[in-house]
Amino acid sequence: MAEEKTNYTQGYSKATVASHTSRTVDSDASFLVPYIKPTDYILDVGCGPGTITLGFRALAPQGSVIGVDISEQVLDQARKGVSEAIKKADEISQPLSRITFQKVDLLAGLPFADDSFDVVYSSQLFPHLATLDMRVRALSEMRRVLKPGGVLASRDAAELHFYPRAYDLDRLWAGNMTKALRNGEPDACFPGGDMPALFRKVGFAEGQVKVGAGTTVYSGGETRQWFVAANLGRLQAGDTFRESWRRVGITDETVEQTRKMLAKWAEDDNAWYAALQAEILGWK
User: Fold this and answer.
1) pTM reported for the whole predicted model
2) From the CB of residue 152, how many other CB atoms can be counted at a distance below 10 Å?
3) Which tens digits make up the pLDDT trace of 37-61?
4) What is the CA radius of gyration of the chain?
5) Which InterPro entries match (predicted)?
6) Contact residues for 232 (Cβ-Cβ < 8 A; gap 6+)
7) What residue ranges define each of the domains in the chain, with the CATH number in brackets?
8) 199, 209 Cβ separation under 8 angstroms
9) Which of 51, 185, 224, 237 has the most crowded CB, counting CB atoms within 10 A?
């Protein structure tokens, strides 16, 4: 199947989607879980393959969950994943009416009325919005559909680091990926650190915002090999992710150097990766 064209610069190749399916409620939304009620109506924005969305369904069995994404291609994978999960749980007779997926362009507006959801959530959405204006528009729209008293939660990378530093992957991988995400912006950085200010900019008062942080850590031989295999796939010729690097002037030589260093890093028993994740909660 040809890859669907959207304004999502990383694309939807098997390698990219595989890196997203590792995200679950436990890994990426545990900071939100204590605030979810069984009757909540939940919106998962930029849901991708739906692995987090599916977890929300179990937490709100008397409510409903909607996952939205800009790609019908990845939403088809989400629907398939939900169907398979329900079969494995021997719930074949239970209808799927409480979890649905819709194709939506967030920047064009969410197709929901004001004050529709008890919980609105996104994971790693804001790194893919290249400008401050886009990020403001997106978060404002998410706040619009949140009910008074509801909670909006976001989890976005603030820093990525590879150890040992001798492999230079902070520059080769993290630096170049950020440059591509921000369309070549000089000194670009991940948006996680700026999210508290963004929440306040769109209308959340300081006392309505809770700032926290989590980590994503990859260590151990098997985990390193998985991480590197997925990302080498994204950097292969023709992948949309690699093309996003080329569009901002990152040379093929640099891409190949990055691939080489990733492969070497994976074989180092002392190597590990850590990402600092900004975990923000805002109440309307």
Assistant:
1) 0.88
2) 27
3) 999 999 999 999 999 999 998 899 8
4) 19
5) Methyltransf_25, SAM-dependent_MTases_sf
6) 15, 259, 262, 263
7) 14-283 (3.40.50.150)
8) yes
9) 51
